[in-house]
């Protein structure tokens, strides 16, 4: 019996990079470093796809509560949890994770710009 992992592990390399604090506590410095790293990794011989994530597959990020639009406010501490992770726009494409619904992340998707509902199917 084969179990789908939800991504393609063959020819996949993951690495951990710990950036020193406080030098990289600033979001702008993190973005500059991340973009430079992505560019250098793309240039390596044999590299076809590159993405960055706060955590590799199967390593949890953090949980936060959410409230679906139109839902009544639940009692304190009873919001449904959502697992969250920080990833670059090509993350799912790089891992070979099929997109079942909606659209992939785009470079202009940020924490301050919410995608319009018409762009999600």
Explained architecture:
- The protein is α+β, with helices and mostly antiparallel strands and 121 residues long.
- The chain has one domain.
- The chain contains two helices and two strands.
- Strands 1-2 form a two-stranded antiparallel sheet.
- 2% of the residues are buried.
Instruction: Please summarize the sheet with the most strands.
Output: 2 strands, antiparallel
What would the principal axes of the Cα set say about the shape?
Answer: globular
| Number of contiguous helices | 2
Strand content: 5-15%
* C-alpha-based Rg, rounded: 17 Å
Helix share bin: 10-25%
Could you give the distance between the termini?
A: 33 Å
What count of structural domains? Answer: 1
Across the major sheet, the strand order is 1-2
- SSE pattern, N- to C-terminal: HEEH
| Mean pLDDT across residues | 84
The total count of strands amounts to: 2
Structural class: alpha+beta
Q: Which stretches are poorly predicted, pLDDT < 50 over at least 5 residues?
A: 117-121
List strands and helices in order, with pairings.
Layout: H1 27-43, E1 62-65, E2 81-84, H2 91-95
Antiparallel strand pairs: 1-2
List keywords for this structure.
single chain; 121 residues; alpha+beta; 18% helix
Summarize the structure.
With 121 residues, the protein is an alpha+beta fold. The chain is 18% helix and 7% strand.
